[in-house]
Design a protein that fits this description.
Blueprint lengths: L3 E3 L16 E8 L5 H11 L17 H6 L6 E9 L2 E9 L7 H8 L4 E7 L6 H12 L3 E7 L8 H12 L7 E2 L11 H8 L12 E10 L3 E10 L1 E3 L3 E4 L5 E3 L2 E5 L3 E3 L2 E3 L3 E5 L13 E4 L17 E7 L5 H14 L4 E7 L3 E8 L2 H14 L4 E3 L6 E5 L4 E4 L8 H6 L1 E16 L3 H10 L3 E7 L4 E9 H15 L5 E11 L2 E8 L2 E2 L5 E4 L3 H15 L7 E7 L2 E8 L15 H21 L6 H8 L4
Parallel strand pairs: 2-4, 2-5, 5-6, 6-7
Antiparallel strand pairs: 1-3, 3-4, 8-9, 8-17, 9-16, 10-15, 11-12, 11-17, 13-14, 13-16, 18-20, 18-21, 19-20, 22-23, 22-24, 24-26, 24-27, 25-26, 28-29, 28-30, 28-31, 31-32
């Protein structure tokens, strides 16, 4: 093994001495909890970026939500200086998320890399997101270096895991590195393997400046900070650059690298990955995937990124209507840091002004909500998640439905609609062979269509199945983990639209529809869902001085009814005996009063009722 030496980074203020041949841009991809962030910690320690205190745990997981949940949500980059065979190298590492809901973060990170480390847990073996991330990197044409982590665990089976990698990805098992990121075993061999097996970035310093914007965030002191991969030329403080998307001109006020905190440098050159601040004050000016070039030296735009396709939509409303403007600004700043969220304004009769936000999945939605509450101190109400449906009309037009309020009424459905369509996904599940029966049953119960299943080794099965997206956003993942005792892993990709028998489920309170509680679902589940909704509403609606009739109706047909009984004064308490007609007279008078009250009385749903109903019952 060649002698490895760590360079003192304090002397490294000028990085113009690193030509593309001495640069390696790489990322770490893996399934959830396979040790990506821990490996990043060990590499940062090895290269002296952070001290070896033993307290370093997921240093690149900077968000509070990441610390609390123990997952990576945001891809983070860090530059390291490293000496190998007498040459000084600049290594740019990007740590990526592992959950399917954050695959857009992974795809953007891969655009700034020339190679990637595919990390596999030696105890768990290949899991669903391992497969998905490998093909994501393979599709980008990146060099993939497989490594086995956690080989020190008592339950580790490195030979079996290596065999799985060889049979699934056709990679020679003898080239797979074995290590333990937690203890540091074998980590010394990681960076030499990266240098030897990954190509340097292409491009020329003599060409005009060209850079790809692949991430942004907002800083309250300097405005928008842009993370860029320099494809050609160089950039330094004072240069004027132009956005290819908006044609806006900016003066560069600072350039630097993430070390892992922002660290200013004299310049950024071809092949390097770093940040640029340029007095970009408005969050709407930064477009992820944009190409930047030097003023008066236009270049051909880079391909950019395919926009993220929202799979789940939810309404977001401020609990206090006076907070609307502040919440609007908070959502803009947060979507700058998470460009996969789509934003449309909407108004609800029950909840007031708000937004219809599109997410890549339910975990993505939950993390976004938590970040809004923690980072921006927002108090919000978020509606139940829905998926985008398609309505095909008889005149040949097609319309997308993002909210239940957009769904056609009963008469339009009968007269003008040819078919209703819902999105499907192709799901991949990997689990021990003993759970095959339960997994097949689970898919069938959720209207799934089994495609095929194969044994990836003697004990593990890979099952492919077509499922409606609406089934996944409910409680499919919880049931999957429950039925497989936590052993099953799950990943999915979009698989187009299919005709489906959809109905709009409405909630009526005394014959008045509550638009915020409406939903779109398959006809087969409308009766069960309707009864469940009516029962939960009966428990949370406060009694009034008149009866409240709760009804749930699917496409205008009532499927369930519950009644919240009225509060009544005992009007016959003053009658001490006497004829029955005296009591009847008083009761009938009360009855008439209740009728008048019901005619003019309004049922008001408290915020707690919305929160209780929108949270799925246990």
């Amino acid at each position: 093994m060649n002698k490895l030496r760590v360079i003192d980074r304090k002397k490294e203020t000028d990085i113009s001495t690193y030509p593309p041949d001495l640069i390696r841009n790489f990322s770490i991809i893996a399934h959830i909890d396979h040790g990506k962030s821990t490996l990043a910690d060990r590499l940062l320690e090895l290269t002296g970026v952070i001290s070896k205190t033993g307290k370093n745990k997921q240093v690149l997981d900077k968000l509070k939500v990441e610390r609390e949940r123990g997952i990576t949500v945001k891809a983070q980059s860090a530059s390291m200086f490293y000496e190998y065979n007498g040459q000084k190298y600049l290594m740019n590492l990007i740590d990526t998320p592992g959950h399917v809901d954050f695959s857009y973060e992974v795809s953007r990170s891969l655009a700034a890399c020339q190679g990637t480390i595919l990390l596999v847990d030696a105890a768990q073996g290949i899991q669903a997101q391992t497969v998905a991330n490998f093909y994501l990197a393979f599709g980008e044409g990146l060099a993939v270096v497989p490594m086995l982590n956690k080989v020190d665990l008592p339950t580790a089976e490195p030979e079996r895991a290596a065999q799985q990698i060889e049979s699934t990805f056709e990679i020679d098992a003898s080239k797979i590195l074995h290590m333990s990121a937690k203890t540091g075993l074998g980590v010394d061999a990681v960076l030499p393997s990266v240098i030897e097996n990954m190509p340097p970035p292409s491009g020329s310093i003599d060409q005009p400046f060209k850079a790809l914007l692949f991430d942004t965030w907002y800083d309250k002191y300097v405005g928008v900070v842009c993370l860029m991969a320099i494809k050609d030329g160089s950039i330094r403080k004072g240069d004027r650059i132009v956005s290819n998307h908006s044609k806006q001109k900016y003066e560069v006020t600072e350039v630097g690298i993430m070390h892992p905190e922002p660290s200013p440098t004299t310049s950024l050159q071809v092949g390097q990955v770093g940040y640029i601040t340029c007095n970009m004050k408005s969050v709407s000016e930064a477009h992820v995937g944009d190409t930047f070039y030097r003023d008066k030296h236009p270049v051909e735009a880079l391909p950019g990124f395919v926009p993220a396709k929202s799979m789940v939509f939810a309404g977001v409303f401020p609990i206090d209507a006076d907070e609307f403007a502040r919440l609007d600004e908070s959502i803009q700043k947060l979507t700058l840091n998470d460009s996969s969220v789509s934003v449309h304004k909407e108004t609800s009769a029950a909840l007031g002004q708000g937004w219809r936000l599109g997410f890549l999945g339910t975990l993505h939605m939950d993390v976004f909500r938590q970040r809004l509450e923690e980072e921006y101190d927002a108090s919000i109400l978020i509606t139940a998640p829905t998926v985008p449906y398609q309505i095909k009309y008889r005149d040949g037009t097609t319309r997308f439905i993002r909210t239940p309020a957009d769904f056609p009424d009963v008469h339009t459905m009968q007269d003008n609609v040819e078919s209703t369509m819902e999105p499907f996904v192709l799901a991949t599940m990997i689990f021990p062979e003993r759970y095959l029966g339960q997994m097949l049953e689970l898919c069938t119960l959720h209207r799934g269509e089994i495609q095929n299943h194969v044994y990836i080794d003697e004990a593990r099965v890979l099952l492919k199945c077509r499922l409606p997206m609406a089934e996944i956003v409910s409680d499919f993942f919880d049931k999957l983990k429950s039925k497989s005792q936590g052993f099953a892993s799950f990943d999915y990709e979009e698989a187009g639209y299919e005709a489906s028998d959809l109905v709009k489920m409405e909630v009526l309170l005394n014959n008045e529809a509550v638009d915020a509680l409406a939903s779109v679902m398959h006809r087969s589940s409308s009766v069960v869902a309707g009864r469940d909704m009516a029962k939960r509403l009966r428990e949370v609606i406060r009694r009034q001085l008149f009866d409240i009739i709760i009804q749930t109706a699917a496409n205008g047909k009532v499927v369930a009814r519950e009644t919240v009984k009225q509060l009544r004064k005992n009007v016959t308490a003053k009658c001490y005996g006497g004829d029955i007609t005296r009591k009847m007279k008083l009761l009938n008078k009360q009855k008439e009063g209740k009728k008048r009250m019901k005619k003019f009385g309004k049922v008001e749903l408290p915020q707690e009722a919305f929160l209780t109903v929108m949270t799925k019952s246990e």
